[in-house]
Amino acid sequence: MSIAGEGNVFRRAEFWVPDTCTLLDLANVLGRWDSASEWGTRSEFALVKAKRKEDMAQGATKKRFEMAQRIGVVERVALLQNVPKMPFRNAKLAAAFGRSVADFETMPVTKVALDVVFDALVESKSGLIKPELCDERRARWMTPEGGLDEGAIRAGLYRSRIVVLFSWLFFGKGRILSFAVGLKLIIDVADLKDELGALGPYVDQLLAAGAVVAAVVGVRNQAGVAAATSDYKTVSAEEADAARLAEADDSNQYTTVFSKIGSKNTKSASQETSIKEKIMNVVSQPFLFPLIVALGGILSLNLIKQN
Q1: Domain spans of the chain?
Q2: CA R_g for the chain
Q3: Transmembrane ranges (predicted)?
Q4: pLDDT digits over 153-181, tens only?
């Protein structure tokens, strides 16, 4: 038996991500735990070689887990790793959806549902949350009858989206509005509108169009990174520790003159790779294209004016 509203669609805090889930999928996640302490620790860790490279595995390392434990927070990664392995046991929640515990137990736990739950709990794109706050917000989602308060969940997602958009546009990799506003201020303060000739009256529209183009490019770049690096491998705590020790040995210990020379060559190659990665990172910035277009337009108009 299906309940009205169980098929209502939910999206991530980054609402442009195409993957979706339903209220029923969220119930399938929330019915497997009551407190963050049940899933807050993990035993699977990612190994990352290029530490400065943008990679989804960066948030799943043992170093990241140890940091989370020190400051007393639980991770999104822990929720993703542990909850799918936990049994569904909330009979009241199952009954609210006209199903049994056994019905939910056979349903797969989807990654997008896990991410949506964490987005709404943390009310941002952060991968960390205080367990006490997590439990408090989860409790607000439960109705007295044992069902889910859809409005409360969506309110958390809306707050999350506001934070995500603001931080991405002004401070994150996008910095789109910061760039557009900055360029507009330069044009106004330096009184460059007259220098732009026929384009002068359309500066605001051109900047807005450039910001939209930059936003699209930035979103596509971000989605590409997530798609390319989300399927990372994990290892046990012992293997993660061994890899860390091996890395330390390779960096700090030399047995012969030849190994020192070899290490210098490796370091030089690594530095070259790092420089290339930095260049590619700058090139991939979404504000670069509209900046080039704007500067190119201004230069062209000045040349035309001089001739």
Answers
A1: 9-169, 172-306
A2: 25
A3: 287-304
A4: 999 999 999 998 887 766 655 566 666 66
Among 47, 32, 13, which residue's Cα sits nearest to residue 245? Answer: 47
**Amino acid in position 16:** W
**DSSP sequence for 46-113:** E--S-TTS--GGGGGSHHHHHHHHHHT-EEHHHHHHHGGGSPP--HHHHHHTT--HHHHHTSPPPHHH
pTM: 0.72
- Longest Cα pair distance anywhere in the chain, in angstroms? 80
**In the block, which residue shows the tokens 């509203």?**
5
User: What beta strand segments (E) does 168-292 contain?
Assistant: 234-235
State the DSSP code for 87.
P
3-state secondary structure at position 215? helix
Q: How many residues does the chain have?
A: 307
Interatomic CA distance for residues 185 and 189, integer angstroms: 6
